# Entry
Amino acid sequence: MRKNNICRVTGYPLTEIINFGSQPLGNGFVSSANPEEEYFFPMVAGFAEDSMMFQLINQPEPKKMFHENYAFFSSTSMHMRNHFKTFADHVIDSGYMSEADPFVVELGCNDGIMLKHFSEKGIRHLGVEPSLNVAKEANKVGVKTISEFFSEDLADEVARNHGQADIFFAANVMCHIPDILGVAKGIKKLLKPSGVVMFEDPYLGDIIKKTSYDQLYDEHVFLFSALSVQYLFGTQDMELIDLHPQSTHGGSMRYTLAHKGAYEANDSVAQIIETELKQGLDRQEIFQVFKKNVETSRENLVELLTKLKAEGKRVVGYAATSKSTTILNYCNIGPDLIEYICDTTPIKQGTFSPGMHIPIVPHKMFADNPPDYAVLFAWNHAEEIMAKEQSYMQNGGKWILHVPEVRVL
Ligand code: TYD
# Structure
């Protein structure tokens, strides 16, 4: 565990912003309501004005989080399956791929949800996925995947074995990597002179606006803005050439970067950077406002759940997301306030939520015996979920949302 409040990119001191207390792993589901051992770490977020990086000060060892039992399978959401098909089409049609024998690399390809669209077209590809169980799923669907952590050394090895890449992409992965500078160095080496890197992650501008502090958990060591991404890759003589806001994960950004001078930047880059400067994402003050909003959100959620319990209402959680781990532990919400959390992921069912030990049950339990209220922990999938839960709502079932503010729907 690191001891100093040091920016992971520059090595200079950063300012502590929010202390979330002791937190378990976001995906650290446990097999008993009274586990003998459970891992916790001090979760504190800080901001570095030099690099403009909002980041966790401490983070568990990556091997504790991404391993042979990683519980997150990207293909469980229909919306995400559609999203990755569109992202793949965008990459294929982007004009950045050479005509003769292009080669693409995806970092954190999970179960192959995106790369399979390349393998189906016979495009040379390689997935780099540290979690062995999901990497095996990717290989099963025909996606060539190695189970490794990406680093400068691995970039050299991939370039030696396969040649340099036309496109390097990643979705919801870059923000997981503590040695992000090492990854940027690896990307710089792996890309052809005409190559580009495209990646998307939850977007700091949206998180600040929506007080969606649940995007901070052990795996999300950084929450990026265009300013911080520009800074990071600037150290490697690379630059942003395109920015494309996305609706996934409650608001994400797709960043496209290339070697300096290789392409002209699209207008979106100057526009979004200007908006971020207006929002104040380059300065500490906005993060102090965020901290106050997070505290208010916690007070309002606990007050609402306590009131519903006093009225004898049944309240459950809907979707055992990693995000919910931060909310439940930071707000100290346990099985006394939330009876169970239903989730469609088979390996989560029958377990207990990290830290607060709320039972995780199959969706059938929610369908067969609907509660009065359900806290929508997968608020980022609200449209998809509300569309399929029409009968819950028609029978008087209500939703509790905490983003952008705590409210009942
Ligand atoms: P996601 O927001 O991607 O989670 P995370 O915070 O971990 O990134 O949501 C995925 C989780 O939500 C996964 O455990 C499956 C669950 N889920 C349901 O149970 N039902 C649903 O209809 C959807 C869309 C997700």
